[in-house]
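Training component of the fellowship. As part of building independent skills, the fellow (R.M.) carried out the full modelling exercise for a liganded target. The chosen ligand was manganese (II) ion. The inputs are recorded below so that the supervisory panel can assess the work.
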Amino acid sequence: MTTNGAGAAGRDAEKIWSALDGLRIEVPSWGFANTGTRFGKFVQGGAATTIEEKFSDASQVNALTGASPSIALHVLWDLPGGVKDVPAIQALEKQYGVRAGSINPNLFQDLDYKFGSIANPSSEVRGRALAHLLDCVEIGRELGSHDVSIWIADGSNYPGTQSVRRRIEWMEEVLGATHAALGPEQRMLVEYKPFEPAFYHTDIADWGMALELARRAGPKAKVLVDTGHHYQGTNIEQIVAWLLHLGALGGFHFNDRKYADDDLTLGSIDPYQVFRIFHEIVSAKAEERAGIAFMIDQSHNLKGKMEAMVQTLVTAQELYAKASLIDQERLAELQQACKLVEAEECFRSAFWQDVRPVVREWRVARGLPGEPLKALAESGYVEKVTRERASKNASGVSSYA
Ligand code: AFD
Ligand code: MN
Ligand code: MN
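Fellow's submitted model of the complex:
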């Protein structure tokens, strides 16, 4: 079927083609590297072990999907030398045709951060966290990347051991100073997460806290919604609608979860939730949608790194294509008239549509493989990098040292 097919089918194809032409999702450098559970790493022979290998993998994913031209960087892991490593990153951008994307500070691995980073009672430790954030702002400015995407693992394990309110003040101070250092094109994204194992309180636990901290930091601070960072049953698309309404939605970290922050591949557990989130995006005004960063934040323990990343992008494209089919005008009329079942059927009939044939047509028309996962398997890329990297990835399980 081509886009000039008559009638509804043709119109649907046009909606899908234009939706996919505009869909860009950033891949995480850490999604290509060996990660694991709290108890150990299940090392994969083909996993990336250097920033160059991560760029190579990201480039391959983009060549297969046409949807991921940028890679999120984790500063300590990808730029261990800080801003001095920027020229090396720029060389990799040119070599692999993938842009450096969001800059992710690391405020959770340093031993100093045992009692918190930006919310630590020690002004010295908070100063060290701020210095790292300012380094990240400088790296972002040098690389021409827009977003410094901040996630902190701060909190306490037992009631009475910390002052929640003093920690709020300390976070406001550090985030305000970070915001003041942002360049004209830069933003800071404040990510929330309800808990870490053993936590009694998490300093940025929900969208309200992140929103208020972003608001007090300044106009270039927005909220980052990580889809895995919500309690069971949370209506995430309602949070997205509120943040869009407030002009405070900076972007997403996409993944899926069954129980908690599982970092599973997008849509593997609840594709209908992703569709409902995408509905809030596609039904927003163009100016509200502009600048919302779509990013993947997944670490694949059992699936192959490359297959999981390609599968995630393919799933995102298909669910976004489905959401683009919703007849927004008709839906608004039915909602206004409270014609409940008709409204629901108008909404979810788009979800039931099998968009894969049209998405495949779009891929071929854009010079992409019609079946990206199949093309990955046939390319021999995973086998090739596994051979090249095997020596660096001792197979089996290595415990976190
Ligand atoms: C972990 C955190 C959070 C953060 C990501 C990258 O839960 O989602 O965005 O690491 O730092 O997944
Ligand atoms: Mn995240
Ligand atoms: Mn997470």
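The panel noted the following from the submitted structure. Residues 64 and 368 are 6 Å apart (CA to CA). The radius of gyration is 21 Å.
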